[in-house]
Amino acid sequence: QVHLVESGGGLVQAGGSLGLSCAASGNIFSINAMGWYRQAPGKQRELVALISSLGSTNYAESVKGRFTISRDNTKNAVYLQMSSLKPEDTAVYYCNYNARSRDYFQNFWGQGIQVTVSS
Questions:
Q1: Shortest CA distance to 111 belongs to which of 21, 6, 26, 35?
Q2: CB-based contacts of 92: which residues, under 8 Å, 6+ apart?
Q3: Does pLDDT of 102 surpass 90?
Q4: Which of 2, 50, 53, 73 has the most CB within a 10 Å radius?
């Protein structure tokens, strides 16, 4: 089986910074895109940032200039560096990989990690 394990969440004051990490374990043969999603209470899960296999990135308008997504293919890891955090960034953050473990590509999700930004 494949597991994505997230780390780095927590409580931070507005204006502060926080980094999230996600690493895959298990037999993964290849990874296409990696991304970070978040879901705030009472809201739909939304895409925060996406990074392609070649390193091209896309960000939600609300986080552009503040968040940076990166990946390390040797470690099957994806990272999200968050700066200038705002209370509205408070959410559960999930990493997502489009990857092939055996016969086909599918989406794998991390367990979710809480990020809370206090004002």
A1: 6
A2: 38, 39, 40, 112, 113, 114, 115
A3: no
A4: 50
Nearest residue to 60 (alpha-carbon basis) of 91, 17, 23, 97: 91
28 vs 18, higher pLDDT: 18
Do the Cβ atoms of 87 and 117 come closer than 8 Å?
yes
- Reading phi first (left if > 0) and then psi (alpha if -120 to 50, else beta), residue 26 is in left
* Spatial separation of the C-alpha atoms in residues 36 and 95, rounded to whole Å: 5
Query: Helices marked H in 1-119 — which ranges?
Result: none
Nearest CA to 115 out of 42, 5, 13 is that of 13
Residue found under tokens 């016969």? 103
The residue assigned the tokens 């507005």 is 14
pLDDT score recorded for residue 103: 86
pLDDT at 110: 97
pLDDT digits (tens, 9 = 90+) for 34-69: 999 999 999 999 999 999 999 999 999 999 999 999
Contact status, residue 118 vs residue 46, Cβ threshold 8 Å: no
